[in-house]
Amino acid sequence: MSDHTKITHLGRGDPSAEGAINPPIQRASTILFDRAEDLYATGPKRHYGTQGMTVHDSLCAVFCELEQANSVILANSGLTACTLPLLAICAAGDHVLLSDNIYGPTRRFCEGHLSRFGVETSYFDPGAADDIETLVKDNTKAIFMESPGSLTMEFTDITAVVEVAKRRKIWTLIDNTWGAAWFLKPLTMGVDFSIQAATKYPCGHSDVLLGTIAAGSKEGSKLLASYNRASGNFTAPDDAWLVLRGLRTMGTRLERQERVALNIAKWLSKRSEVALVLHPALPEHPDHELWKRDFSGSSGLFSLVLHPVEEPKVLAFLNALKIFGLGFSWGGYESLAVHCDPQLVRTAGSWHHTGPLIRLSIGLEDETDLIDDLTRGLAQL
Ligand SMILES: Cc1ncc(COP(=O)(O)O)c(C=O)c1O
């Protein structure tokens, strides 16, 4: 079955839907039992609302197939999906190795909070996976990748990291939000946990926060399930329902967003104001070959480096945009733009480009309208 068929057909047909195509939303804390004997019985019957209801099972079933996972856990945001597995894995005295292009709040969580529990964090250059063995310590418990990084579009050689991690018995995690388990299947490459902010492409409508953690093995599933149950993490059924609804059209949206984003990236690469377009499908992208090796396509998110200009000009560029919204997050039906320099943090190396870094998330608007909008913005430079 192709992924297009999977996302339209899987996770349906539970008897509680009574023939309706979509699952019911069951808001539940208490679940009643007919007999007192069953209250403490183990078995398939749910005992309490935190175990999730039909819609949670439906959503997990679709993600499980897309990610080719052993199991999937839902989290109340993409950020929780990043932090929860680290809490499940690490104990005092452990060390985690993060990619230097990791989502900023994940970095802050490790530095500011995992540290309180005696877990040390250090960083690797996302483009230098060949050196990873030199950074691994005896107490390294997890290596967390983000490929590509959602601001700088740097890719990591996942296979090289997995090879070292397996040999050294280290868990590997990847933030797979850009690949969306559509263009990249990290678990099939040996990564232990594939994480997504389903807030982005699966939801697709900028109205829900939700995360997913897909585990590749039984052992990983057990570790996650145990911590998840203990932590009280829970996703509201309405949110799960909305993401399932969004997921049904994700493939179609991504096909269009991929095509339009690449056309706009090509157009931008010919503009005199632009120093470099960071879109992996362009042959001039430094990780073009790595992207071609591992990914089956590209999504609607990419970045560009402008020729050096003062910040007021960058702000004028953004303020002149009428169709692109100015705001964080991405993957929705509406196009967004942000300048990234205020949130660029590097520890393992430095960011080599001197001009301002702009990130675009291409939505579902008409390509010509988007290009006209960017033309209006670039005129400010
Ligand atoms: C790459 C990446 N991972 C994780 C997250 C966190 O997702 P959420 O906004 O659902 O917390 C984001 C959000 O922007 C992101 O860009």
What characteristics describe this protein?
34% helix, 2 domains, alpha/beta, 381 residues, Aspartate Aminotransferase, domain 2, binds pyridoxal-5'-phosphate, 12 strands, single chain, 12 helices
Which structural class do the helices and strands define? alpha/beta
Largest sheet: 7 strands, mixed
Unreliably modeled segments: none
Radius of gyration: 21 Å
End-to-end Cα distance: 49 Å
Oligomer: single chain
Overall morphology: globular
Query: What is the N-to-C order of secondary-structure elements (H for helix, E for strand)?
Result: HHEHEHEHEHEEEHHHEHEHEEEH
Total strands: 12
Topology:
Blueprint: H1 3-9, H2 54-67, E1 71-75, H3 78-89, E2 95-99, H4 104-112, E3 120-124, H5 132-135, E4 140-146, H6 158-167, E5 171-175, E6 193-197, E7 211-215, H7 218-231, H8 237-247, H9 250-269, E8 274-278, H10 288-294, E9 301-306, H11 311-319, E10 325-326, E11 336-339, E12 357-361, H12 367-378
Parallel strand pairs: 2-3, 2-4, 4-5, 5-6, 10-11
Antiparallel strand pairs: 1-7, 6-7, 8-9, 9-12, 11-12
Helix pairs in contact: 2-8, 3-7, 11-12
The structure holds pyridoxal-5'-phosphate.
Pyridoxal-5'-phosphate binds at residues 77-79, 82, 103, 150, 175, 177, 197, 199, 209, 211, 329.
Structural write-up:
It is a single chain. The chain is an alpha/beta fold and 381 residues long. It has two domains: 3-247, Type I PLP-dependent aspartate aminotransferase-like (Major domain) (Aspartate Aminotransferase, domain 2), CATH 3.40.640; 250-378, Aspartate Aminotransferase, domain 1. The chain contains twelve helices and twelve strands. The protein has helices at residues 3-9, 54-67, 78-89, 104-112, 132-135, 158-167, 218-231, 237-247, 250-269, 288-294, 311-319, 367-378; strands spanning 71-75, 95-99, 120-124, 140-146, 171-175, 193-197, 211-215, 274-278, 301-306, 325-326, 336-339, 357-361. A seven-stranded mixed beta sheet has the order 1-7-6-5-4-2-3, with helices on both faces. Strands 8-9-12-11-10 form a five-stranded mixed beta sheet, covered by helices on one side. Helix 3 (78-89) packs across helix 7 and helix 11 (311-319) packs antiparallel against helix 12. The model has no long low-confidence stretch (mean pLDDT 97). The structure holds pyridoxal-5'-phosphate. Pyridoxal-5'-phosphate is lined by residues 77-79, 82, 103, 150, 175, 177, 197, 199, 209, 211, 329.
